[in-house]
Write a structure and sequence with these properties.
single chain, four-stranded antiparallel sheet, alpha+beta, 6 helices
């Protein structure tokens, strides 16, 4: 292995170069600190309907990653044909890249956001492009995209060829889209959600969008 350089980095500073999306706006936004007990109980949850969004006990870091990475284009995530499930729009390594220049409170402080759009809007649009003005206006955060050189490793085939084996039909288990992540029946349309627990670790779950 040897190193080569290329890496992209998010920086909390000026203006971010993100996908240009003509987005609707929220006409009403309520932001409240999340009670400490709710944070300790892992109170993160999302409820949404066309034009209405409530996110409970969310960190600003999660809002930033949603607005500029997970839901950057304001569109629904692509569907994996074999399983029929939604997939992330980019690798986890890109979603959880380091945010440079950020203060510690964007990961530690939690807020509940209740917002109403100026018209019907899908949840991906509300959590993506429509959330950016909220971060700028209400939390006074500004961003820009920056490219830096950093050492990385290149994976090459060793002498003798690859020794990897193909997976078999029984080696992987598809997530049940009806029972959800924990085997419980859910009503409505299921969407995968990537949440932070109270220690900042990322967990995957399902939210029922009724």
């Amino acid at each position: 292995m040897h190193s080569r350089s290329t890496s992209c980095l998010w920086v909390l500073s000026c203006l971010l170069a993100a996908p240009v999306v003509r987005a609707q706006r929220f006409e009403l936004v309520s932001i409240r600190p999340c009670p400490p007990k709710a944070v300790a109980d892992g109170g993160f949850r999302v409820n949404a309907s066309p034009g209405r969004l409530t996110i409970e006990c969310v960190s600003i870091e999660t809002l930033v990653r949603d607005a500029y990475l997970r839901y950057a284009d304001g569109k629904a995530w692509p569907i994996d044909r074999p399983t029929g499930l939604q997939t992330l729009p980019m690798p986890n390594g890109e979603i959880f890249q380091q945010i440079k220049g950020s203060a510690g409170w964007i990961a530690s402080e939690r807020f509940t956001i209740d917002a109403k759009a100026d018209g019907p809007a899908i949840v991906e649009m509300m959590r993506g492009p429509m959330m950016r003005p909220v971060l700028a206006d209400r939390f006074k955060l500004k961003f820009h995209w920056e490219t830096r050189d950093t050492p990385v490793y290149e994976l090459i085939v060793a002498k003798g060829g690859p020794k990897l084996q193909s997976t078999t039909s029984r080696s992987c288990q598809a997530l049940d889209p009806v029972k959800g992540a924990r085997g419980r029946a859910n009503r409505g349309t299921l969407r995968p959600q990537y949440a932070e627990d109270f220690e900042g670790r990322t967990t995957e779950g399902w939210t029922s969008m009724e």
